[in-house]
Amino acid sequence: VKMKKMLVVYYSWSNGNTKRIAEQLANKTGADIARIETTEPYSGSHEDVVEQGKREVEAGFMPQINPISVNLADYDVIAIGTPTWWYTMAPAVLTFLTTNDFTGKTVIPFMTNGGWPGHVIKDMKDK
């Protein structure tokens, strides 16, 4: 029986909760880990980034992201983590989901939030 190879990929603006959960998940499962990073990092205070994130979510904006450090074709199971930004996934995760092919993969979405989860998981499944 072939063992399934797992990857945990995540976006975390501030090296916060999503990064910690992704690292714990990778550690517990023996999965590889990769971080989604925007080509132009968000800057400014937390409030500045929250406001920029709100504008991007409302506009359906998908920022450019850097290529991740691994080849998705090498994995059977991909866990994708995002913080909740304005009741949905972070725009960088939307970019990742819409620019990669997950055909034949088991995708496990996970999210973190500071109060209300919104409709993140539904939105991720719809992509």
What does this structure look like?
With 127 residues, this protein is an alpha/beta fold. The chain has a single domain (6-126), classed as Flavodoxin domain (Rossmann fold, 3-Layer(aba) Sandwich), CATH 3.40.50. Helices cover 33% and strands 21% of the residues. The chain contains four helices and five strands. It has helices at residues 17-29, 46-59, 91-98, 120-126; strands at residues 6-10, 32-35, 77-85, 88-89, 106-112. Strands 1, 2, 3, 4 and 5 form a five-stranded mixed beta sheet that branches. It is globular, with a radius of gyration of 14 Å. The relative contact order is 0.21. The model has no long low-confidence stretch (mean pLDDT 91).
How is the secondary structure organized here?
Blueprint: E1 6-10, H1 17-29, E2 32-35, H2 46-59, E3 77-85, E4 88-89, H3 91-98, E5 106-112, H4 120-126
Parallel strand pairs: 1-2, 1-3, 3-5
Antiparallel strand pairs: 3-4
Pfam families: Flavodoxin_4 (PF12682)
Domain Flavodoxin-like: 7-127
Protein name: Flavodoxin
